[in-house]
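so my prof wants the structure for this chain in the tokens format not the other one, which i didnt know existed until like an hour ago. anyway here's the sequence
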Amino acid sequence: MKPVTADMLRAHLLVASFTALVADVFACVIVAVAPRTQHLLVSSGFRLAALVMMAGGVIVARQMGQTAFKLAVAHRYAIGAGIHAQPVRVASGCPRRWLVILHLRLAGKPFVVNEH
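here's what i got, hopefully its the right format
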């Protein structure tokens, strides 16, 4: 497996895991507020809702990353976006650098961070 592909899969799993963590916190709050609703948390409906929430979290993260990436390209913080053979160069001073890098990882595009 190529390193870029492994990085892409890791990024998707990271976002899905973070969204699952949010779903778990939500479930704990529900149990703390209404203890009689515990039986709902083991239902297939809740499990399906949790899966939908994880998929939605990945979609939202991809959209936010793509928007940040487009802004970085427009403001010249990211260079080389149209060239597939070369990695995208991201400036270290980019204000949304973590979102830009998340987008590049989710998209499976190689990148380097310029220290200048």
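also thought this was worth mentioning. The first strand starts at residue 78 and ends at 79.
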